[in-house]
Amino acid sequence: MSTTHEDTEEQNLAYNVFARACVSRGTLEHVTGRWGGLTLGALHEGSMRFNELRRRVDGVSEKMLSQTLHALERDGLVHREAQPTNPPRVDYELTPLGREVAERLMTLIQFVEGRMDDVLAARERYDARRGAR
Amino acid sequence: MSTTHEDTEEQNLAYNVFARACVSRGTLEHVTGRWGGLTLGALHEGSMRFNELRRRVDGVSEKMLSQTLHALERDGLVHREAQPTNPPRVDYELTPLGREVAERLMTLIQFVEGRMDDVLAARERYDARRGAR
DNA sequence: CCGTATCCTTGCAGATACTG
DNA sequence: CAGTATCTGCAAGGATACGG
């Protein structure tokens, strides 16, 4: 290993996580996307059925919920348990991995949520400056 | 404060953070969005100029970078330092609040990044099942 | 060098209707 | 109940050109 450009590569790592070619990019988008986060949040409270989830997630359509659930299931964050009864009953729940991801996501969300007064204040300052100019 | 429906409200809090009407929703989208996370990541390494940032953030257009930077600045996560020299020089850096947000975002990203082998394995299992049916 | 303004394309998401 | 299929709009995003 060469040592001359080592720190350059380390620096690259931090933002390349988001680079287009990065493998984790897709999963991250499922998690942080419009409905992914919401779904993980709801499921973080416990196992839930499709329509139950649909009612809890404000504004999601059947299509989007279905799509989101499939993506999260494919990534191994959500487990789908279908009982072949009639009428059908399907339960969704977080996998252990999904729970860990959801927890870290919640940490971020709750931090931002807790600092919204700062954000709102910053916005007012920004808008005031903009308006003045 | 009433105590009868307290836990219901606590539960609501967890997913309502993502609800449409929620104030923090906008900021969260700036942070977790396509270019917001990337920009925060790059800036987490230190102060940077516009074109420097543009070169580092893989695939971003001038328009999107500009837009992203404005959104983050307005939310008080990024500070813009313009020197009225010629040619102009503008530096962007994280505010203390921005640094805290970036750190929590990084925690999430790096966790997912570190578990991508699990995710990839889950995907193969999922696709194999799908293909079989 | 640091952006904004404009046009134009594409892909995501909503609505609706239908199936097992 | 638990979804899939299709159509359509609209807005995010890319390319390009120009301004301070």
UniProtKB/TrEMBL annotation, chains A, B:
Any matching Pfam family: HxlR
Transmembrane residue ranges: none
Top-level taxon in the UniProt lineage: Bacteria
PROSITE patterns named among the record's database cross-references: HTH_HXLR
SUPFAM superfamilies: Winged helix' DNA-binding domain
Protein known as: Transcriptional regulator
Organism: Streptomyces lincolnensis
